[in-house]
């Protein structure tokens, strides 16, 4: 978490950064657009179904990949992922903001190509080999997790 002064300094540094072919006015316009998109995604995430079944605190001692796998399985079994949440978790930018991962958490499986092809991003496998089923749809789950992502994932899961 950063204070207002650090945030302002970071923001000003972004504005001062030279971007090929984009003047400051355009950068500000893009930032406003992205802020609005982020707010909409956050609002969708906050709209959660009412439940009386509180989740137990997650085991922080597990490796992050194992933690994601076991926790996601519990979340799916408890049916905590509605269609809006699933849609948001397929957005790479939202997942970057939410978990600090470089790919969407979920990628919908399509019938047009093999699972192996669908798991690849730039020639590297970035999704689990076995798809999961959420609301009768099959999805691949991002496998590109690092210890730095663990805290954000735990926070998200505990807020469901």
Automatic annotation (TrEMBL):
Q: Which superkingdom does the taxonomy of this entry point to?
A: Bacteria
Protein name as it appears in the record: Uncharacterized protein
Organism (species) = Mesobacillus subterraneus
């Amino acid at each position: 978490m950063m204070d207002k002064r650090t945030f302002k300094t970071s923001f000003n540094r972004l504005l001062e950064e030279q971007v090929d072919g984009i003047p400051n006015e355009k950068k500000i316009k893009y930032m406003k657009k992205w802020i609005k998109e982020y707010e909409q995604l956050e609002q969708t995430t906050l709209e959660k179904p009412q439940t009386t079944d509180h989740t137990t605190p997650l085991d922080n001692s597990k490796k992050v990949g194992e933690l994601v796998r076991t926790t996601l399985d519990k979340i799916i079994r408890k049916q905590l992922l509605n269609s809006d949440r699933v849609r948001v978790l397929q957005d790479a930018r939202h997942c970057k903001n939410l978990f600090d991962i470089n790919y969407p958490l979920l990628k919908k499986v399509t019938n047009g190509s093999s699972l192996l092809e669908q798991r690849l991003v730039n020639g590297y496998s970035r999704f689990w080999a076995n798809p999961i089923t959420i609301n009768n749809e099959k999805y691949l789950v991002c496998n590109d997790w690092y210890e730095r992502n663990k805290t954000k994932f735990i926070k998200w899961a505990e807020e469901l």
